[in-house]
Amino acid sequence: MSGQALTQSRRSVLLAGACLTVTFAAKASAQTPTSLRKVEPIPARYVTLEPSPFADAMAANRRYLLSLDPERLLHNFYWSAGLPANKPRYGGWESESIAGHSVGHWLSACSLTVANTGDPAVAAVLDHTLAEMAKIQAAEGDGYAGGTTADRGGKEVPGKVIFEEVRRGQIEVTWTLNGGWVPIYAYHKVLAGVIDAHLLAHNARALPIALGLADYLAGVLAPLSEEQVQKVLSVEHGGILESYAELYAITGDARWLHTAERLRHRAFVDPLLARRDALAGLHANTQIPKAVGLARFYETSGQADHGEAAAFSHQTVVDHHSYVLGGNSEREHFGPADQLGGTLTTGTCEACNTYNMLKLTRHLYAWKPDGALFDYYERAQLNHILAHQRPDTGQFVYFMPLQAGAKRDYSTPEDSFWCCVGSGMESHAKHADSIFWHGPDAIYVNLFTPSTLDLPGDAKLELRTRYPEQGEVVLRVARPSATATTLAIRRPGWALGARITLNGKTIAAPVSDNYWRVTRAWRAGDTITVTLPMTLRAEPLKGAPATYAFLSGPLVLAADLGPADKAFDGPAPALLARAAPTDTLVPGGGAHRYATVDVLGQSQTLRPFNALYDRRTAVYFQTFTPADWKAQRRDYLASEAQRADLARRRIDVFHIGEMQPERDHGLTATAGQPGTFYGRHSRSIPEGAEVSFTMARRPGAAFLRATYWGNDADREMAIEFDGQQVAVERRSGPKRNDWVTVDYPLPPSDQKRSKVRLIGRKGTSVLYGLELIAAPRRDA
User: Fold this and answer.
1) What single DSSP character describes residue 348?
2) For residue 677, what pLDDT band results from cuts at 50, 70 and 90?
3) Domain final residue, candidates 497, 531, 565
4) 547 and 473 within one domain
5) How would you write 167-236 as a 3-class SS string?
6) DSSP characters for 438-461?
7) Which domain holds residue 546?
8) What is the DSSP letter of 433?
9) pLDDT in tens, 226-260
10) CA 102 → CA 39, 80, 416, 493, distances in Å?
């Protein structure tokens, strides 16, 4: 985040707020031991979205929610319980062992929609689904209801077998838990969805189902030692801590708080308690939900250090691991702090991470309402969340690629069901839930989303604007509040020269915690107008100070590099800056439109990134001074030509040692394990072990490129493709304290995929990445 948006002094204020001396009325109950929240979001049922991109996104999302058949989403639930599963399950992840997670997200998204609009069609299908879940749970007989699966002896069986193995103390972990793909993660999604149906949609069926689900999993964990529980938690488990803390807030049953306490993953919590950034190399969306859980655990337990840990986690991710969009991670993982220079790839900014960061932001804000937190929230919502859904089809993007010339890859309606499809359903059902907040004597306006707030018997406010396209925001008091004498309106940190008027007259409204605070005896018809200059500014990429992104007001800009269905293989646009980077851009006709000429004399048009749904884009620009360009021009052009040529010839990239790529490539191993070294993931192949997987092929000559660490010597490994040995890699000779790549020519093949087998022959070989690349053309 830019220095303008979140200064060091503001960071200190925010962390001080997280030191937990404030009081509030707790969210769901009187069971919280202390009052810690200072403000609360005004429930979305009192907020009506007016025409805008936000309303369009919610409408598209509603259409998608209603297009899904919940009985297909519940297919494996019926099967597990021994009930007829009359409708086929969906494809994609819903046909893999993580199946069932989508229905949890769908329940939450439907509940959010009902909470906002009372939509009768969505409420009806939500009620039907909960009724079916109650039948399933009754058939299971012990509170369990789930759709995950496991492989036992080459046969797919219900994933409940994994939980029963864990209950007996049989715990085997890699990326998986007893061979099942994140079963507790998927279970959490179901539990969270049912809790949301209770809290948000007020469905009477939901709470008994939630209590049954919670009782079953708590019973599985009860016999385990602390060491065994921590071993279970080493596999991705979503926000299960948050759900148990939430159930304690709802019921006051101390059993749920005790279970939540056991579900704190010490490997994640302990560095945060010590205020240490230990995120490098970690799977990002495994960690952020744990921080959300810590926040809710703090709110229900009163353990102040856990609130401080959650706040430190948020600060660390925003200030040291995030891109200009507000998103984070590359290929789902955090890298070293403030070192994003080599990470502009097609795998940046997983949508689930931002979904969870916004949840965490809401918790921190409730403890200490500072507008700087909503500066971040707005940035991520406008530039990442709005960008990751197509408003025409309602489909979603997994990664938001920041590589120059990259395009967005969208889900399909029935054959994707990635995690980011699930969180996407939720993200675009909640555009009304954070606009207005309230405290003891104030209403806070945090997001400039066209909307109407109508509190029965109290305030009615009309927020009219074309923001963010334009910078004028008009807030009209249609009916004054009976209790709130102050309207607190966020003053964005980036909005230098912002102005505020009351009934057409400029006022000197005091600013505190990044809010204009206007206090008076309000009358119907009073109007506040805020003018936010949409100024252009540049923001450097962390770890690459000569590489910049550009923002106009709150919007990230991008160069339009052509339609998504046409390949981009030119050099990434770079800029020549004689003074400030913003001097390279000139207004290009229209709001948030700019033009520039890159270092090669090519005209470039920059406009808001979020709406470039079907275009190839460039967000970050390497920037040269005239002297630097003169000295580096030849090297830059050669490097870009080599990059473009390699991109054209690259057939498959296998980031071995990472969970999702290993699943995508069908990896199996008789021994060895994944690891991390210098921020790069790896897999070891011990002597006598075999690792097998598949890689994509295309007709013609090709080679396999493998990456090793130069100091790993005295090792030997055989490499086979489709049963034929193609090489024996002998790691010998002088050691090098650097990465080493080795290319292995492959025999021609007409197959679309090849089976690869690696056999350890001497010592332990360690691989840090594999690429399958077409051989250069002879005429090239």
Assistant:
1) B
2) confident
3) 531
4) no
5) HCCCCCECCCECCECCHHHHHHHHHHHHHHHHHCCCCCCHHHHHHHHHHHHHHHHCCCCHHHHHHHHCCC
6) E-SSEEEE-----EEEE-TTS-EE
7) 536-635
8) S
9) 999 999 999 999 999 999 999 999 999 999 999 99
10) 32, 16, 10, 37
Of the chain, the end-to-end C-alpha distance in Å amounts to 43
Cα 683 to Cα 693: distance, rounded to the nearest angstrom? 13
The answer to the question of residue 644 being in a domain is no
What six digits make up the tokens of 215?
A: 């009782």
Select from 69, 91, 117, 109 the least CA-distant residue to 196: 109
- In this structure, are 106 and 255 located in the same domain? yes
In a domain, 735, yes or no: yes
pLDDT number for residue 8: 32
What is the amino acid identity at position 499?
R
Residues 158 and 249 in one domain: yes
| Best CA proximity match to 262, nearest among 305, 308, 231 | 231
Residue with tokens 């209770």: 198
Tokens standing for residue 46:
């009192």
Q: Are residues 126 and 145 in the same domain?
A: yes
Residue among 509, 494, 447 nearest 475 (CA): 447
Model confidence at 700: pLDDT above 50: yes
**Between 739 and 727, whose confidence is greater?**
727
The identity of residue 591, as a single letter, is A
Q: Is pLDDT of 31 > 50?
A: no
For residues 396 and 447, membership in a common domain is answered with: no
Domain boundary among 498, 531, 564: 531
Count Cα neighbours of 369 within 13 Å in the Cβ-side half-sphere: 27
Q: What confidence category does residue 334 fall into, taking pLDDT thresholds of 50, 70 and 90? A: very high
Cα distances (angstroms) measured from residue 695 to each of 418, 449, 598: 21, 46, 38
Cβ 259 vs Cβ 246: under 8 Å: no
User: What's the CA gap between 528 and 499, in Å, rounded?
Assistant: 10
Cis status, amide bond into 456, omega within 30 of 0: no
CB 83 within 8 A of CB 139: yes
Q: For residues 627 and 404, what is the distance between their CA atoms, to the nearest angstrom? A: 24
Q: How many domains does the chain have?
A: 5
What is the pairing mode between strands 505-506 and 499-502? antiparallel
Handedness of CA 740, 744, 750, 755 (dihedral sign): negative
Amino acid at 756: V
Domain-embedded: residue 692: yes
